[in-house]
Write a structure and sequence with these properties.
alpha/beta; 4 helices; globular
């Protein structure tokens, strides 16, 4: 596994063998601006297009930035488009611990409910990884 991006807001790693991207937000997101969030999502999207994962695990546990309606749409559309472009199969989300942030995360995922990428929320990373590792039957 290699670190493909790291800044004060997030770390993104890619496992070439398993074709899984792992992103993890930091608690520094509490002071993030909408502009910085958009920039972070563009980075994640660009890296998805570059590395072409089949699976994505977004660890949102420490994210303290609640998505506004505008940001929800931007996040969903940007990541969905990148995922569709690379043939992403599954997108696992480790739910944030902050209740408001968790609520806005679920709202964002609802935008993606009609796309051919399975999206599922988890409390534990181990459970999410198990789900990502399950063989999907076509």
């Amino acid at each position: 596994m290699q670190i493909i991006h790291k800044d004060k807001y997030m770390v993104i790693e890619f496992d070439e063998d398993r074709k899984i991207t792992f992103s993890k937000w930091t608690k520094e997101t509490k002071s993030m601006t909408n502009k910085e969030m958009r920039e972070a999502i563009v980075i994640a999207s660009s890296l998805m297009k570059k590395y072409k994962p089949k699976y994505y695990l977004a660890n949102e546990r420490d994210r303290l930035f609640p998505y506004s309606k505008e940001i929800q749409s931007f996040v969903a559309e940007t990541l969905i488009n990148a995922g569709l472009e690379v043939g992403l199969l599954k997108f696992a989300i480790i739910s944030p611990t902050d209740i408001l942030v968790e609520f806005t995360t679920h709202q964002t995922a609802e935008i993606a409910k009609n796309v051919p990428i399975e999206v599922k929320h988890f409390k534990l990373e181990e459970t999410a990884i198990s789900w990502l590792n399950e063989v999907t039957e076509d």
